[in-house]
Amino acid sequence: MNYERKVESMDSLAGSAQEFYEEADDRRKRKRLIIAVVLIVLVLAAAWYGFSSTKGGDPAAGDGAAASTPTVTVMIPGMQSVQAAISANGTIAARREMPVGVAGEGGQVVRVLVEPGQWVGAGQTLAIIDRSVQAQQAESLAASIRVAQADADLAEAELKRAEALVSRGFISKADMDRKRATRDAAQARVRVAQAQYREAVARNSRLNIVAPAAGLVLTREVEPGQIVGAGSGVLFRMAKGGEMEMLAQLAEADLQRVSVGTRATVTPVGTDLKIEGQIWQESPVINPETRQGTVRIALPYSAALRPGGFADARLVSGTGQAPLLPESAVQSGPEGNFVLIVDKNNQVQRRPVKVGTVTDGGVSIASGLTGNERVVVLAGAFLNPGDKVKPVVQKSSQ
């Protein structure tokens, strides 16, 4: 009996403890629920207060919104007169290159009188060839003229004496005919000797290497002591009158935009010179591999123009009206060139464009803009389409 009472008392104690813990847990849940409700009410109250303050035009809130909107510089480019230019590159060459070699029979070079880079006149001697043997041959022919002339004078005197005697009957007409023939043959030998002498003199005058025309010596391929002849090839190269040209390579489409007389500005590589010239000849064919053709640009002499050198050219093919932007306003991406414009809602928009001529004044836009848009000039790389901005208009440079 006592055992049963102990068990019942223990069960009642356990039940009381369980009820205690359940009541404590309920109190904690109610407390957390009350705290959560209070927090939610506070958040809603703060949100309502912020919304009502903004709606009511709170100056502090307005200043914060304005401060978060970036300010960007924009310009309205309009339409400007832009030269339609074509860029090209190519090599420098003599406009009329004259290869000079041996014109006569040749021989041993005694002296070379010029160096590359010197100016020479027409007929000026460039190199002297030994003519000691040829000079003796010419002297011999000159002596043969004197011998033949003496024979001719003797035959003429004999003919005159015979003519005085023929009237007296001392000389027959047959003898007269022979004396006339002798006189004529002697005079013919004089003429033959004279022709041979002049031929020798002409050959000797062609021994020296001379300039065929006035111009600039470009190369020299001969030295004293060298034996030269008809097979020696080119010994000097000259630029006639010192005139140069640029052989510019143009794309097939660009060839249609230029013609003979088109102005060009040539800049040799490594210099800042701008040498004015013009196209004087167009290539009648197109290279089927490169799809390019050659135009020849006539240039005046300049020490910076060296045949074989490389140069850049800018060909002016006309003028037109187009928007002109600074280079900072034009960006490029995988799809091509583009600019950022600010629309009427002051939001950034991306506009694809086609770039035209690049000049010192900026980049002309061939298509994509009308000139009335507000184009972002600076900080375009930090903006994205759809961004809200505060534009500040900059005057376009004219």
From TrEMBL:
Residues 248-317 form the CusB-like beta-barrel domain. Keywords: Coiled coil, Membrane, Transmembrane, Transmembrane helix. InterPro entries: Beta-barrel_RND_2, HH_YbhG-like, MdtA-like_C, RND_pump_MFP. Residues 138-203 form a coiled coil. The keyword Magnesium does not apply. One of its GO terms (molecular function) is efflux transmembrane transporter activity. The chain crosses the membrane at residues 33-51. GO terms for cellular component: efflux pump complex. Residues 136-210 form the YbhG-like alpha-helical hairpin domain. The keyword Oxidoreductase does not apply. Residues 324-377 form the Multidrug resistance protein MdtA-like C-terminal permuted SH3 domain. Belongs to the membrane fusion protein (MFP) (TC 8.A.1) family. This is RND family efflux transporter, MFP subunit.
